[in-house]
């Protein structure tokens, strides 16, 4: 079986469509911005450049670039054929930390091989996208059938629950949300998507009587208007109601830091030294940046360590403080253009699998960007989601570059 | 099995794109709001985040006596403060800190709340900690984020004299004072003068607090000083020089011993108070830092009232010492002349009441001079019968009775000089009788004076009518102008009396001390002409209060002395000997030379 697509140098240049060139420029610009912010954040650390986070990050970017290049040359059919196998492999990987034992902090997020640590849940994002894309593009299912949607939902639900147990609330959320743009674009009925979403809304609204009441009214209205079979409506209604009543009971079984993380979403100032403290300090950092920022190395919030997690989750705040509104707009425009390119490029693609993979990748990047930035400006709780290409962290950087490799690969093919 | 066609709908992808645009719009809008609209607010918070303003407490001015001896000095004490914002785990921090300080967690929390000045400002939790605690805290510094110690100056009193009523004391500024515009700039927890010269000369003594600006990281660790903000050094307060002669004060305190009462030694010409005692007193060291509530309660509730300044706040019946007022009023208003005589048989009958002279067998025939030297009551009973009570009251007021002397000590009493209007108000018109007059003329009844009023009166007798403003503040050294500034005082003169009246009074007062029959012979000093008058004021609480007022006009010693011994018995036997010792001391010390030299030149 032929794995690599191209044999000669002549055909090697052909795949560099405008989309791919733009993509490479965007990724390079984002990585450089990230390195600059990391340089600033590690300015006062007295280590040789390559032992600091910026040096390590640079190595990972190089590794990621190499990996993306390799993926670019692999036949797309290989991904299609191995998608389910990769998914199972991924499940084993995210279960492995539970078998190998907990880390000193009591979490099961990491796999250590010698001095090298990686987070399998990051790679799982790729596998889930591939598996769902493959399933939704197979010819023998009908997306208008509700039962057919259960498989992709299961594909996302299984890793989600495992990762929730690690525990990593932010990442597990990504797995669950990810399935909706894929189902939506694959052509699932809106009523079906609503049915899948309804238990989540039941849980979220269950904490307040009035919100839950409004939700139940809305639910009944939708069920009525959709003109589904009566028994379907009744089962759905009973299911959602019982979920709503059970939630407050289950809530108390959540870990307190998870409760806090969720609660601070609603009132940031309630817990100034807990999770809300980070958000306050991040807002101060970004807000005090003003239009053009304080300049490289002059961010007091960053350098006096008021800003927490400034190398990973809050790298955006470093940019906001040191480069101001101009700096964050630059980053936002890069991300916006990247995601728009991804989504619009699917118009030209020949097959459904490629299209869904790109939509999955685009949605994943979008979710990371929006949730991470929203967190730094106090619109969302601290979820621990990194910012693609900018946040420090090997596993996620390499995952992002695998995304890039897949995007380049898919776009290399001339539209049919 | 695989759909090779791209069957993803365009319409749904367009909806996805709209969602992306909407999400980015929200992010950009929020960033614009934070970075552009609320920019100045966040810059302010970021500044406060990185700057720790450390107050540098200024030394209070040193208080000297007139000769430059130090009465109140400063020493340093270590205090513990907490910056609430920087305390990460209050539970842990307070427990560790509490172990060192011997406080419970709740006590620490209460102190923080009491001294709260905001999240980022240090709140006092302990004062004057010893070196051992300090080293312990230093060792556990990393476990105690937000806990700071500061070096602050407090008062120390190196002299052997107590004089707490002159010095007053420092306490934490009260809520009322914080609202007072006069004390603008004070913060809760600051020390302020509450009594005495510490209060009166607060603005002179108080220094100006300095500030150090430190750049700190999130753990409260100092990472350097700020480039763009200069440290402001504290400015110590100005040094104050009192009119007190410390040696005389120590001597006076020693001869007063454990007696209760008051002593004033004053320069007759200027009103400078050389010594001032109010007994019982307390050690000023109790107030060197911030006084413990238990000690304070004990002082406040003490039935002997040590906090009470008897010299300025205490009102007493002056007793016979006040007969001089009646004599002068009579002479000046032509009621009688000094040759007018009365036979004293030891008692005076008014209707059914009998008013006694202090000498039961009587003094016999007396003129005014003899009546003063012998302090004969019957003579003055007869005298006042011939006189309008308001004339007597007017003369008392001429000497400043019934009104404040405006001494530079806070909380002075007015005293009471009863006149017709007063008696009418108190007893209703017509229901008071001549008997009230008889009591008043011998310095009893409703008449109330303060010892400091008596001192002013005595000085006026000595100087033939100079009505001085008694004062304890002599001058201060202005550190900005680099020179001494003398406090000015007002001196009124009494023009109402003729020379012959003055002559007669002084001659009579000389004989009170020096005549064979004088009541104050125990105040005599060999080689020094001492003038005086005793008083023995009956009171319902026990033995009579013993008074002596006296003065000297010597070239080397021209002072006025007032001695009051509460429940001391007769003025001649208790108060006069004390005054005599003081006169002798001042005479031997050549006190006048000192007054002149310290008042006019730099030290």
Describe the 3D structure.
The complex is a heterodimer of chains A (416) and B (603). By secondary structure, chain A is mainly alpha-helical. Among the domains of chain A are: 14-74 and 284-354 and 373-396, no CATH class; 82-176, no CATH class. Chain A contains 16 helices and 2 strands. Chain A has helices at 9-13, 18-41, 53-73, 76-100, 120-137, 146-165, 169-186, 190-205, 209-225, 230-251, 256-266, 275-287, 300-303, 315-345, 352-376, 394-412; strands spanning 111-113, 116-118. Chain A has a two-stranded antiparallel sheet. In chain A, strand 1 and strand 2 form a beta hairpin. In chain A, helix 3 runs parallel beside helix 16 (394-412) and helix 4 (76-100) crosses helix 6. The model of chain A is unreliable at 7-13 and 265-273 (pLDDT under 50). With 603 residues, chain B is α+β, with helices and mostly antiparallel strands. Chain B folds into 2 domains: 52-242, Alpha-Beta Complex (Penicillin-binding protein 2a (Domain 2)); 246-302 and 312-600, Beta-lactamase. Helix content of chain B is 36%, strand content 21%. Chain B contains 21 helices and 23 strands. In chain B, the strands form 7 sheets. In chain B, strands 2, 3, 4, 5, 10, 18 and 19 form a 7-stranded mixed β-sheet that branches. A 5-stranded antiparallel β-sheet of chain B has the order 12-11-23-22-21, with helices on both faces. In chain B, strands 1-8-9 form a 3-stranded antiparallel β-sheet. Chain B is elongated. The termini of chain B are far apart. The mean pLDDT of chain B is 85. The chains are: A mainly alpha (416), B alpha+beta (603). Chains A and B meet through helix 7, helix 12, helix 14 and helix 15 of A and helix 1 and helix 2 of B.
